[in-house]
Amino acid sequence: MGRYILGRLVSAVPVLFGITVIVFLIMALIPGDPATAILGAYATPENVAKINRDLGLDAPLVLRYFNWLGNMLTGDFGTSFSLNRPVLDEVLERFGATLILAGSAFVLCAVFGIAAGVVSAANQYGAADKAITFAVLLGISIPSFFLGMMMILGFAVTLRWFPVSGMWPIYGDRDLWALLDHLAMPAVALAVVATGVVARLSRSAMLEVLRQDFIRTARAKGVHERGVIWRHALRAAMVSIIPVLGIQAGFVLSGAVYIEIVFQWPGIGRMLVNAILTRDILLVQGGVVFVAACYVLFNIAVDVAQSLLDPRIRT
């Protein structure tokens, strides 16, 4: 197992290297001048040249990349000019809020998606299967940002059940209940599409397992149908479901950008949008690389979990 984990970590290095190259090139090639964005009305040719020289933007592209990469490997992501604080500090502070939102959405999609898929497979072509299939197709078809706006209109503006936006109340205590009150709508809006995907693929995995010989043997031995479904079939199907969960983890992490804008959630997605608008290159590069690294590490954890359920994967 140790050799398998080490091999997965080593294989992640070129992936992360490729991500840094792509992010750097995109930010270097998009139109606009960071120095002009910084100076605004004071963007004279002399001031622009001075800012470019101070930021190292007048150096060759390859040299700029390796300087940035070398600093990042030592933990120095640079300083955000728009916020005037270290990039890593800002990213870590914002990532905590994103982790709460994306983590909650991931738990919802995993629990309800797997449960819906199991119930649907256990009642194939029955009323429950048709109802779940309809709900899943409806959920997958609705964009998360549109669903979020409709939830704000219905549950926040009309019914006044939940706050419209933000992570904490403007006035009052910042306790767990206040957080859950603000988290409910964005987490559900973010989880709906992922839940539908997990439910559909869980149903397919369960139907495949339910046709296996060991399931027929368990039923022939007199095992209760509930035990057959939840103890035997689901355990075998998890080998196929876990990779789907890994993909959906990346989906909710990237989809959090839209939800954070809709609900004004103070996470890393909203930070990246503001950084792009202000041409804060170091903040965008540092934020994207940090999120990508977290996603790669999570997928490694998913692969390890899958190998624990099915040792054949390690070989």
From TrEMBL:
It is a multi-pass membrane protein. GO terms for molecular function: dipeptide transmembrane transporter activity. It comes from the Bacteria. Keywords: Cell membrane, Membrane, Transmembrane, Transmembrane helix, Transport. The chain crosses the membrane at residues 12-30, 95-119, 131-162, 182-201, 236-261, 281-302. Residues 95-301 form the ABC transmembrane type-1 domain. The keyword Membrane applies. It holds the Pfam family BPD_transp_1_N. InterPro entries: BPD_transp_1_N, MetI-like, MetI-like_sf. Belongs to the binding-protein-dependent transport system permease family. This is Glutathione ABC transporter permease. It comes from Roseivivax isoporae LMG 25204.
